[in-house]
C-alpha cells in the first residue's frame, strides 16, 4: 500500500503525532495519580461487588416477608467477608438487614430510600466504618443498600483503575484521529505539490523558460521550489550561451572552410587532392549541421507544398561530384514526377543531404548510393556498404552517438535527420535491404489534395 511505503510523510506524521499524544496523555495521567497520592486522601474503599451479590439474593416469601437467600454467591461472599453487614430499603419503606450493623449506621434505615449513591472511607484499621451506598434493581423492585465490612480496596488501586478506564478510550480516540484526520489534513496541505510535480514533468529541452508554481504550496516547501526555479533559470541562461556559441562558431567556420575548399579545388588532380577535398567537405558538413540544429528549433517557420522528387533531384545534383570523387555511383530512382508533402523545403533538403553524406562517409568508397521516392511519401537512401547491426539501429539517431567510437564525425547528422522528420510529423528508421548495406527510410504525410 502507498500509505506504508518507505519515507511516507503521512506515515511519519501519523506515528510521530500518535506517539507524542500518547506520551503526553500517559504523563498527564501519571502526574494526576502522583498528585492524588500526595494529596493523602487516605483510607480504603469497600468493594461494591458485595452490594450487587446481596441485592441479587433479596427475595420475598409467600407470606410477604423479605429475606436474603443463601445463594452460591452469598455463601462465597460470607467466606471472603464473614463480618459483612447491610441495610436494604425499598421505596415502600420495607427494610431488611443482615449482619452486625454498627450503632452509628442504624438510624440510616429510616431514610435510606432517599439516598441513591454514596461512599465513606475509614482511615483507621480495621476500617469497619467504611461503607458504600448503592441502588440495586431486583426482581421484586429497587432497593437502596448500605453495606460495610466487605472486601477493602486501597485508594491508590481505585485511582489507577479509574485512570486506566479513562485513558484507554482516549487513546483509541487519538488513534482514530491520527489515522483518519491526519492523512486528510496532510493531503490537503500538500495538494499544491501535485501541481508542482505536473508542471515539472512538462519541462524539457524544447520547453525552456517554464518555472514551477510557488503559490498554493506550504511555506516549508517554498524555499526548495524557489531554489529549483533558480537552478532552471541558470540552466536556461547557460543553454542560451551555449547555443549562441555554437551558432557563432559555425558561422565563423564557414568562411575559412569555403576559402580552403576553393584553394583545394585549384590543386592538381590526385589522391591527396581527393582526400583533402573529402576532409574539407566533412568539416563544412559539420558546420552546417551545427547551424541546422539551431534552425530547426527556431519558431515561426511556415510549411508549404514541397515536391520530394524535385528536392531529391537537387540534392543528387549537388552531391554527385563529391560522391563520384569518393568512388560511388549516385542515382535517383523514381517513377513519379510529383510527390507533394507539406513542410520546410530547406529542412527536408538538409535531412536528405545528411543521409547521402552519411552513406558517402560509411559506404567504404564503393558501390552505388540510391535515392528512391515513392508515391506514398516514402523516401529512401540506400548504399552498398557494411550496413548497420540490428542492435545499433535505434541508437544511431541519438545525438553524438557513433557506430564506431574512433570514426570521424560528431554524430549529429542522423540526430538532425530525426529532428527534422519528427517536426514534419514523419518517421525515419533503418530498414532491411535485399542487398548488403544500409537503407534509411523516411515516411512523410502527403499534403492534402486541392
Give a structural overview.
The protein has helices spanning 9-38, 49-57, 72-80, 155-189, 191-201, 222-265, 271-295, 308-325, 345-362, 413-423; strands at residues 44-46, 58-60, 66-68, 85-90, 95-98, 117-120, 131-138, 141-148, 152-154, 304-307, 329-333, 340-343, 368-373, 378-382, 427-431, 439-443. It has 450 residues and is α+β, with helices and mostly antiparallel strands. It has four domains: 2-41 and 158-189; 48-150, Beta-Lactamase, CATH 3.30.450; 200-298, Helix Hairpins; 301-443, Heat Shock Protein 90. It has a five-stranded antiparallel β-sheet, covered by helices on one side. The chain has a five-stranded mixed β-sheet with strand order 11-13-14-16-15. Strands 1-9 form a two-stranded antiparallel ribbon. A hairpin with a 2-residue loop joins strand 7 and strand 8 (141-148). Helix 6 (222-265) packs antiparallel against helix 7 (271-295). The radius of gyration is 49 Å and the shape is rod-shaped.
Distance between termini?
58 Å
Largest beta sheet: what is the strand line-up?
5-4-8-7-6
Poorly predicted spans = none
Q: How many strands in all?
A: 16
What is the CATH class designation of the largest domain?
Answer: Alpha Beta
CATH superfamily of the largest domain: Histidine kinase-like ATPase, C-terminal domain
Number of helices: 10
Provide the β-strand percentage band.
15-25%
CATH topology of the largest domain: Heat Shock Protein 90
Derived from helix and strand composition plus strand pairing, the structural class reads alpha+beta
Element pattern in H and E: HEHEEHEEEEEEHHHHEHEEHEEHEE
Domain count, please report it.
4
Instruction: Give the overall pLDDT as a whole number.
Output: 79
**Gyration radius, rounded:** 49 Å
CATH architecture of the largest domain: 2-Layer Sandwich
Principal-axis shape equals: rod-shaped
The amount of helix comes to: 40-55%
Largest sheet: 5 strands, antiparallel
Amino acid at each position: 500500500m502507498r500509505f506504508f511505503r518507505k519515507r511516507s510523510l503521512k506515515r511519519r506524521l501519523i506515528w510521530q503525532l500518535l506517539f507524542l499524544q500518547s506520551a503526553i496523555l500517559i504523563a498527564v495521567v501519571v502526574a494526576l495519580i502522583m498528585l492524588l497520592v500526595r494529596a493523602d486522601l487516605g483510607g480504603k474503599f469497600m468493594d461494591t461487588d458485595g452490594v450487587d451479590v446481596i441485592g441479587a439474593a433479596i427475595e420475598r416469601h409467600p407470606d410477604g416477608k423479605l429475606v436474603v437467600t443463601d445463594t452460591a454467591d452469598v455463601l462465597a461472599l460470607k467466606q471472603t467477608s464473614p463480618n459483612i453487614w447491610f441495610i436494604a430499603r425499598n421505596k415502600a419503606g420495607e427494610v431488611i438487614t443482615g449482619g452486625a450493623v454498627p450503632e452509628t449506621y442504624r438510624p440510616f434505615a429510616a431514610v435510606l430510600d432517599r439516598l441513591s449513591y454514596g461512599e465513606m472511607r475509614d482511615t483507621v484499621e480495621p476500617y469497619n466504618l467504611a461503607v458504600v451506598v448503592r441502588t440495586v434493581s431486583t426482581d421484586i423492585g429497587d432497593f437502596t443498600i448500605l453495606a460495610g465490612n466487605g472486601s477493602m480496596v486501597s485508594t491508590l488501586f481505585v485511582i489507577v483503575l479509574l485512570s486506566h478506564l479513562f485513558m484507554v478510550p482516549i487513546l483509541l480516540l487519538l488513534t482514530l484521529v491520527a489515522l483518519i484526520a491526519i492523512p486528510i489534513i496532510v493531503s490537503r496541505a500538500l495538494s499544491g505539490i501535485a501541481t508542482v510535480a505536473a508542471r515539472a514533468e512538462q519541462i524539457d529541452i524544447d520547453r525552456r523558460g517554464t518555472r514551477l508554481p510557488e503559490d498554493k504550496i506550504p511555506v516549508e516547501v517554498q524555499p526548495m521550489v524557489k531554489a529549483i526555479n533558480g537552478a532552471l533559470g541558470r540552466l536556461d541562461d547557460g543553454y542560451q550561451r551555449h547555443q549562441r556559441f555554437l551558432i557563432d562558431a559555425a558561422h565563423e567556420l564557414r568562411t575559412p572552410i569555403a576559402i580552403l575548399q576553393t584553394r583545394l579545388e585549384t590543386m592538381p588532380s590526385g589522391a591527396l587532392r581527393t582526400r583533402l577535398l573529402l576532409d574539407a567537405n566533412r568539416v563544412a558538413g559539420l558546420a552546417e549541421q551545427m547551424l541546422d540544429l539551431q534552425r530547426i528549433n527556431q519558431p515561426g517557420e511556415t510549411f508549404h507544398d514541397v515536391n520530394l522528387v524535385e528536392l531529391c533531384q537537387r540534392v543528387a545534383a549537388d552531391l554527385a561530384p563529391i560522391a563520384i570523387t569518393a568512388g560511388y555511383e549516385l542515382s535517383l530512382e523514381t517513377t513519379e514526377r510529383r510527390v507533394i508533402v507539406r513542410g520546410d523545403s530547406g529542412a527536408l533538403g538538409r535531412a536528405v543531404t545528411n543521409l547521402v553524406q552519411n552513406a558517402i562517409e560509411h559506404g567504404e568508397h564503393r558501390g552505388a548510393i540510391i535515392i528512391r521516392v515513392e508515391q506514398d511519401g516514402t523516401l529512401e537512401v540506400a548504399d552498398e556498404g557494411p550496413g548497420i547491426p540490428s542492435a545499433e539501429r535505434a541508437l544511431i539517431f541519438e545525438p553524438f552517438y557513433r557506430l564506431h567510437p574512433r570514426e570521424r564525425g560528431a554524430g549529429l547528422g542522423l540526430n538532425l535527420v530525426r529532428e527534422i522528420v519528427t517536426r514534419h510529423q514523419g518517421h525515419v528508421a533503418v530498414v532491411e535491404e535485399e542487398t548488403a548495406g544500409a537503407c534509411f527510410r523516411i515516411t512523410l504525410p502527403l499534403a492534402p489534395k486541392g
